[in-house]
Amino acid sequence: MSYVDRVLEATKAKNANEPEFLQTVEEVLNSLRPIVDNDPKYEEHAILERMVEPERVHEFRVPWVDDNGKVHINRGYRVHFNSAIGPYKGGLRFAPNVNLSIVKFLGFEQTFKNSLTGLPIGGGKGGSDFDPNGKSDAEVMRFCQSFMTELYRYIGIDVDCPAGDIGVGGREIGYLYGQYKRITGKYEAGALSGKGLSYGGSVGRPEATGYGAVYYADEYFKSIGQTLEGKTVGVSGFGNVAWGVCKKLAAFGAKAVTLSGPDGYIYDKDGIITDEKINYLLEMRASGRNLVKDYADKFGCEFVAGEKPWGRVKADIYMPCAMQNDIRIEDAKRIVEEGTAKDLIEVANMPTTNEAMEYLQKQGIVMQASKAVNAGGVACSSLEMSQNAEHLSWTLEEVDDKIQHIMRGIFHNCKDAAEKYGCPGNYVAGANLAGFQKVADAMLAQGIV
Ligand code: 2IT
């Protein structure tokens, strides 16, 4: 049995009740074979065994009181996955389905993603099974304060620097930062990113994930002699990431035509391209209703209840911007059968099941890996930490230039790694190989820790 197979088997046995975590470990380790199976030093130093074991996991009680005086208990998490190349860095997700498996999958992915940015940040992730939808501002504030009253022990500028993810945006980061500052008695701005502009945030952070994804896509299309202009894009989700993607696609002359939510999907064949339509996404998210149907009601387009857009519309490209496992095997088959789409550019973390990814690749759909495509968000967070460290704020132009440079560079690193290790055109494998190499080199240099 090869080294990769042995580690996979042991990891499955040890984490049998963590399906999302095992899914990403399987996907990543399988693509690392060209590096680790050809050089005994990785096994001698147990690089893979150490990479699949978080350095530590924090799990804690989060008690809070709602507006009617009722007490609620949620579960909080912060996983310190890998600090080989920098302090742990990664978002906090507040959503009802958050559990240890999901936080570990996100932390594992984050380690490789952060490595791909070229910036000095390790991998971490956290969150809670708290659902901010439908809660009052006061309830969200009390929850965030309670969450931070435990979390503050585990974070800090040289330790771990959380940020937002699904369910955690500017409002939540504000409340979290306020409580962190109050408890620690220090203005340690770099300990959290995604802050507001008035207290240490970076310009461009809300847009960075979506814009970065489109910069990556633009670089990919350039490399195959095409452009985004005139292309139709099927998008899922309607949150911050989908918003940035729609906006930047429109700027490149492409058009997003779908959005999705827990209630179904909308199809706007004219394109989500005007400021009015694009900015309505922010309103829908802020309303806390969590319904995409509101878009169809407002702009008079088609709404399909209980379904996802995959293969149900005409699109040249799909860009899933919602959650993990959005595209399953039945969706992949529908996409292939519909026949228009040539590219799947993952934006949300792990939006495609391993089975669906394998099928799509076999059928000739070109896939781009989320850990590469969505790295603009965390890259901007790292730039926010740089600004905080030098007590300066950069202009939007400076930040956007850097994000563009990083994203275009990530695409080439994925492409080059795929070519170097014998799988040209497999950008997903390329992302894993390139992300792995830097972390593994740092771990080898630092000894058995
Ligand atoms: O998935 C992600 O990369 C994020 N949620 C952003 C993390 C960050 O530290 O900005």
Query: Could you give the count of β-strands?
Result: 12
Largest sheet: 7 strands, mixed
CATH architecture group name of the largest domain: 3-Layer(aba) Sandwich
SSE string: HHHHHEEEHEHEHHEHEEHHEEHEHEHHHH
**Quick check: average pLDDT?**
98
Beginning-to-end CA distance, first to last residue: 26 Å
- Supply the helix-strand structural class: alpha/beta
What low-confidence regions span 5 or more consecutive residues with pLDDT below 50?
Answer: none
Ligands in the model, by name, code or SMILES, are: (2Z)-2-iminopentanedioic acid
Instruction: Give me the CATH fold name of the largest domain.
Output: Rossmann fold
Describe what is shown at a glance:
Helix content is 48%, strand content 16%. The protein has 449 residues and is of the alpha/beta class. The strands form two sheets. The chain has a seven-stranded mixed sheet with strand order 9-8-7-6-10-11-12, with helices on both faces. Strands 1-2-4-3-5 form a five-stranded mixed sheet, sandwiched between helices.
What does this structure look like?
Helix content is 48%, strand content 16%. The chain has 449 residues and is an alpha/beta fold. The chain has two domains: 3-188, Leucine Dehydrogenase, chain A, domain 1 (Rossmann fold, 3-Layer(aba) Sandwich), CATH 3.40.50.10860; 206-364, Rossmann fold. The strands form two sheets. The chain has a seven-stranded mixed beta sheet with strand order 9-8-7-6-10-11-12, with helices on both faces. (2Z)-2-iminopentanedioic acid binds next to strand 3, helix 6 and helix 16.
